[in-house]
Structures are given as structure tokens and as C-alpha cells.
Design a protein that fits this description.
Blueprint lengths: L1 H23 L11 H6 L39 H39 L24 H25 L20 H32 L3 H4 L1 H4 L4
Length: about 240
């Protein structure tokens, strides 16, 4: 009887233990399951792109360069600082050219015939009155001397940029060609960064605008000044 009692006690213990285990399987867990939104919220703001808050910031775009908002979905910045600085140099130069072009393009369409007629010269516009370009045609009207002058000016700025880069070394800022005849560039770092950012933003808008001019004139076959006169003609 003693052996039977011990056996029954062991069997009862096993049943009770099994019940506790099975019940705990359905009881609320103390470990909370966090959503992906909560996990992302815990990330530092510095790890996320300012331009695309839902996407991680590219590692090279740490905000030290002017105009850097962590936007590089196609990875054009490259894999190292050297490639990033080369791309920034190219961006700022294209920005400056675009800002000049976005002003010169419509002004040529508005004034080229008048100025050429006043000087007794033939104008350089196309038959529709559009600025000459690869898509519009009319580049054959441009004198070779003009291209020589443009190439010479570009070479001068490139040489100045290279000289400034060698002179300043690690303190060199991409796009600095040592050209500031009016001393517009401020002295303190915060103001310098602000001015560089403004230049980049205007340049990026200008690159989009000049592309819009080219596409619009290619599609409609008319000068941009005629298609959207409210931008280029006086309202009075």
C-alpha cells in the first residue's frame, strides 16, 4: 500500500505540472512584441534621411556638406569621401552653369533679334524664335569664336579651382574657385554654410528649370517665352 500511495502522489504531481505548463501557454506573456514603427522611432534622427524620413540616411551624407539632406537613392555619392567631394564639385559647377543658362535662355529669345538688328547682325535664334540647342537646332549659327571664348573662360576657372584646392588643402570647399570680387562670402562658418546651401538650392532649381525649357520647346516647337509669356512679359 505504501508503494501504491507513492505512485499515486507522483502521478498527481505530473498531472498538476502539466496543467500549469499548458495553462501558461495561453496566459499573456510579459515580453511585449514591438511594432516596426516603434523600433524605427527609437532610432536616432541622425540615422534617418531628412529628405526621406522613412529611409535610412546614406552613411557618407552626414550633414557636414551644405545642402545635404540625406537624399541619394541611386548611390551617386560613391563609396568614399573622395568620390563624394568629386560629385559635389560637379554638382556645384553644373548648378552655376544652369543658373546662368536659365537667365540667358529666355533673354536671348526676348532680345537677341533686337540687339542683332541694332548692330546690323543676323540673329542666332531658330526659325521659330527659340534659343539654339541640340534639340532645337540652330547651333550652326553660332560662330566658332564664341565656343573658343567659352572654352577659354571655363579653362581659367578650372585652373583657379585647382590652384585654390592646392593652396587650401584639407580646408578646401568643393566648388571654391577663389572668385569673390565683391567679397560677398561671409567670414563665420555658420553664415558660410548658409550661403553655400542657398547657392545649391538655387542651382538645383535652375537645373530643373533649364531642363524644363529644353523639353517644353522640343515638344511644342515654340519658344518658352511664347508658351508661358506670363513669366517673361511685363504684366502692364
Amino acid at each position: 500500500r505504501q508503494n501504491l500511495l507513492i505512485t499515486n502522489m507522483k502521478f498527481s504531481t505530473i498531472i498538476v505540472s502539466s496543467g500549469i505548463v499548458s495553462t501558461s501557454a495561453f496566459a499573456p506573456s510579459n515580453v511585449s512584441i514591438r511594432s516596426s514603427t516603434e523600433i524605427m522611432a527609437e532610432k536616432s534622427d541622425g540615422d534617418m534621411s531628412k529628405a526621406l524620413p522613412f529611409a535610412p540616411r546614406p552613411k557618407l551624407l552626414d550633414g557636414t556638406l551644405a545642402g545635404d539632406v540625406g537624399f541619394d537613392p541611386f548611390g551617386f555619392a560613391g563609396e568614399d569621401k573622395a568620390s563624394l567631394e568629386r560629385m559635389r564639385e560637379a554638382e556645384i559647377k553644373h548648378s552655376r552653369l544652369a543658373m546662368l543658362a536659365v537667365v540667358g535662355w529666355p533673354l536671348a529669345e526676348l532680345w537677341d533679334k533686337k540687339i542683332a538688328g541694332f548692330l546690323g547682325l543676323s540673329d542666332s535664334l531658330t526659325s521659330t524664335g527659340a534659343s539654339p540647342s541640340l534639340l532645337n537646332g540652330g547651333l550652326d549659327k553660332i560662330e566658332p569664336e564664341y565656343w573658343v571664348i567659352v572654352a577659354a573662360i571655363a579653362a581659367i576657372f578650372e585652373l583657379d579651382s585647382s590652384a585654390t584646392k592646392e593652396e587650401k588643402g584639407k580646408k578646401y570647399t568643393p566648388g571654391d574657385c577663389g572668385f569673390d570680387p565683391l567679397n560677398l562670402f561671409p567670414e563665420d562658418k555658420a553664415s558660410q554654410l548658409s550661403m553655400q546651401t542657398k547657392e545649391l538650392k538655387h542651382g538645383r532649381i535652375a537645373m530643373m528649370a533649364i531642363l524644363g525649357f529644353v523639353v517644353q520647346e522640343a515638344l511644342y516647337g515654340a519658344p518658352v517665352t511664347a508658351e508661358t509669356p506670363f513669366f517673361f512679359q511685363p504684366v502692364f
